[in-house]
Specification:
Largest sheet: 4 strands, antiparallel
Number of strands: 4
Helix content: 55-70%
Shape: flat
Radius of gyration: 34 Å
Length: 619
Amino acid sequence: MARARKASLEDLPAEWAEELSDASLRDTAGLKTFERGLEYLRSDRVEMVSAKGLQAQFEAHGTGLYRVDLHFEDPGLHADCSCPHAADGNFCKHMVAAALLWRAHLGGEAEPPAAASAAAALTQARVAKAAQTRAAKREALQAFLAHQPAEQLAQRLWERAQSDRDLMAELKAWAATSGAEGDPKALRTAVDELLKVSGRDYLETRDVRAWIGRALKAVALLRDALPGLAVDVRAIAEHALQRAAGVQERAGEDPGAVDEVNSALMAVLVASLRAAPPPAAWAEHLLQRVQGDEGYLWSRPDLLDAAGPEVTRAYSRRLAELWEQTQAQSSPGDAATTADLGFSGRPRSFDAQRDRLRRLMVEDLERQGDPLAVFEFMKRSALGLGEHAALIRWCEMHGRPRDALQLAQAACKLFDNHAVVEDLLLQAYERDGWDEEALAIRRRRFDKQPWPDHYLALIKAATAARADLPAVRRAAYARVQAHEEAEAGQRSHPLLRPGLRQASPGPNVSWRAGMLVLDNEIDQALALVQAPNGCDPRVLEALADRLPAERDADAFSLLKSCFEHQMAGASSPYKEPLRLVAKAMQRLDTEGARAFLLSLGAQHKAKRNFIAGLPRVGP
């Protein structure tokens, strides 16, 4: 029986073959998605499962295992993928990679090079000719439409708009903008029409993108109207910013997409203020805006600069009045103490309005260019851990190191050496050479939390203070061992991954082993982590990394323990366990690596994505 000939690009209509070209796939998916798909293909992360005639199935290995189906059916290429991006209606990178692989398959890569080159050249010529044909058809269609009666075209357009809400919105905006030039009322109507959006609580990505396109047209209208209607443009731009805020709240998965519209509208508003500075009373209006939910958008120095000196002076004066009113309403018991602090470091009696006004006061004083006034205000008004820390940081940034040191010392006393201000005090001590004072803090921290990173900082501080390093080390190890004994019998440890409990019956020696690794006492660390003692996998991996090639067996044993720990709570795509498998295999010879993979395959055969991600051993 004659063997059926494999389908090739030459069997496809030219228009269909073109859809597998780089240019067509790039247009369909977008440049970034196309490049990611190309990278998928180059890294062998997509494979063909089956191919028959005009259809093919593929598997793509990404954050999960995805199935890609491609087939040709009039009018052209149809693609489907099981990934979330494709579920939203997008042509994803997995589809791009599969299409490129199918094109290579249809191009007959098994042919001799000369024949393959000839086939490729023929295919390229056919694709180019098809592109020219399509362009000619489009031009002919455009010419045909240009000669049709306007009434007939308008009727067809209207019928189409009945079922296309975006097209209907475009038509309404077109009608509104036709008379907007020079007429403030018509301009506002046109902008309102362009900014209309669905009343649903949640807006799909498609809805948001369509709205952004119309909103940017509204911005263009306002920009064009600026020379003659600056005052009206300012009012309309402010109204448009409110509408944009509403869309941003309902923008679902991509609220940041509306930022482009916000920035463009704010630029128009600034330009309108420069063209026609408002009266001083506008300062009150601006203050209401900056204190509202969209205050982050309105709190901008360029708005005040554009509004002019009268508004600027009125703004500063009114802001100071509001601050004084807030202070007068505060009770004498509002001063922060350690007991007053909530989780965020703010007083439990935290007042959002006071916090906002204080921030605005600082911004306004900084805008006025008076650093001394900023310092005095921040110092006088500091309430709570966060505001004291902000004052210390401000002093560090503005060349007041002595003030920063003194304020940090006072804050540590006020807030019982809270880590936030103690960190700032440490920075000041280490910057100014107060080595013994820095060492005292490092000792206290290590005694409280004898972690390896605290041990490293302790040794560094002891070196700077010229302390007796052997004595410091002996005291540190004794402290850690005391912690281990105190925690004996507990089945969890702070260094273990959340949700997992220590499985070994012995004490958890993670901290002490970590310190030994840092001190390069590898043999002692290796002896310490042996059963029945328990140890955090991160410490075991760090220890394995320190072992030389002649101790590959010990390193493999440690990495295997790390893998087993990670695999116990892992789920697809098993990124961390697979990383540890690859790392452990580097410590094995070829036969050992092959045996290791076989044992993993037998033990975890039900975890298909894990098995699919296992590395391969060469011949």
